[in-house]
Amino acid sequence: MEKEVKSLQDLIDNNRNWSEEISRNDPEFFPTLAKQQAPDYLWIGCSDSRVPANEIVGLMPGELFVHRNVANMVVHTDMNLLSVLQYAVEVLKVRHVIVVGHYGCGGVRAAMNNQKLGLIDNWLLEIRDLYHQKRNMFKGLQSEEEKVDLLCELNVIRQVSNLCHTSIVQDAWANGQKLAVHGWVYGLSDGKVNNLNVTINEPAQLNEVYRLDLE
Question: Which pTM was predicted?
Answer without folding.
Answer: 0.90
